[in-house]
Amino acid sequence: MGSRMAPVDNASALAISLDVPDSPTAGPLIEATRLGYRYGTGSGSFEVSVPRLSIARGETLAITGESGSGKSTVLELLGLAAPPLPGAHFLLYSAAPVDVARLWRARADGALARMRARSIGFVMQTGGLLPFLTVRENIGINRRLLGLPAEDARIAHLVAALEIGSLLDRRPAQLSVGQQQRVAIGRALAHGPALVLADEPSSALDPRLADRVLGLLRDLAVESGAAVVIATHEQGRVRALGLREIRARPLDAPDRLGSCFEDAS
Ligand SMILES: Nc1ncnc2c1ncn2[C@@H]1O[C@H](COP(=O)(O)OP(=O)(O)OP(=O)(O)O)[C@@H](O)[C@H]1O
């Protein structure tokens, strides 16, 4: 496998070409071991650890745990926004397998940023839509940044499935919270990412809407061959939806505080 890895020098930016679609729709997307992050140093430090994690394309995974256990931190690690602790193995099977831990070690910030832009979509708790842009512009922003055409069959399908066709010329302030979340899902998926990360995407919604939004997120992402990772404290909803789950437990270390995320099934 090593010879197929993207190199970590400047050429890696080319290896992770923006116009190469994340074409496979099956197989592994992420394989990681000893993935971790540490806040602070010494006795006041807090460590978030994921001993092993494998995520397939088309799969939906929930990350659950108490407030402060480190769910958002795991999303940041998976979203290439936080460098893993030394010792991590972290492969992301984008258009080609990429050794993410090696990119961090090589401080290949440009390549990481390009991968983040091309391969990852984010849904935040309260939408995170840009208030000065219309719904249409919000949905199109990642595509615009990547130089992709504004409209295509994918956008038309998302708009129809999310039932936001009548909202396209409005601004976020003119939308209900549930409508904002549906637009946020459209924005996260519009550029065809391989991985969609959602941080508490349903916790600001009433139960009926929460189920609908989570269901839409899962179904639309899976349909496009993306993997979805949802950080949530709503363990009951995760179980009701039958999602695979990794759950936080206290870190088993005498000298520091932290959480360890392991398979809960
Ligand atoms: N700069 C920092 N220094 C020390 N600890 C920090 C720092 N930033 C975050 N933490 C700690 O890291 C832990 C993980 O935070 P994180 O936001 O990932 O948890 P979470 O499970 O997503 O929480 P929530 O559900 O409340 O959003 C928390 O206990 C937090 O106090």
Describe the 3D structure:
The protein starts with 10 loop residues before the first helix and ends with a strand. The chain has 9 helices and 10 strands. The protein has 265 residues and is an alpha/beta fold. Helix 5 runs parallel beside helix 7 and helix 7 runs parallel beside helix 8. It has a 10-stranded mixed sheet, sandwiched between helices. The protein is globular. The N terminus is likely disordered. The longest helix has 17 residues. It has a single domain, classed as P-loop containing nucleotide triphosphate hydrolases (Rossmann fold, 3-Layer(aba) Sandwich). Belongs to the ABC transporter superfamily. One of its GO terms (cellular component) is plasma membrane. This is Putative ABC transport system ATP-binding protein. One of its GO terms (biological process) is protein localization to outer membrane.
Q: What is the strand tally?
A: 10
- Average pLDDT metric: 85
Q: Which radius of gyration do the C-alpha atoms yield?
A: 18 Å
Strand content: 15-25%
Global geometry: globular
- CATH homologous superfamily, by name? P-loop containing nucleotide triphosphate hydrolases
Count of discrete alpha- or pi-helical segments spanning 4 or more residues: 9
Order of helices and strands: HEEEHEEHHEHHHEHEHEE
Bound molecules: adenosine-5'-triphosphate
Widest beta sheet: strand line-up: 5-4-1-2-10-9-3-8-7-6
The CATH architecture can be given as 3-Layer(aba) Sandwich
**Looking at CATH, which topology would you report?**
Rossmann fold
Sketch the major β-sheet: 10 strands, mixed
How many domains make up the coordinates?
1
* Helix share bin: 25-40%
What CATH first level would be assigned? Alpha Beta
User: Stretches where pLDDT falls below 50 for ≥5 residues?
Assistant: 1-22
Instruction: Supply the helix-strand structural class.
Output: alpha/beta
Please give the alpha-carbon distance between the first and last residues: 30 Å
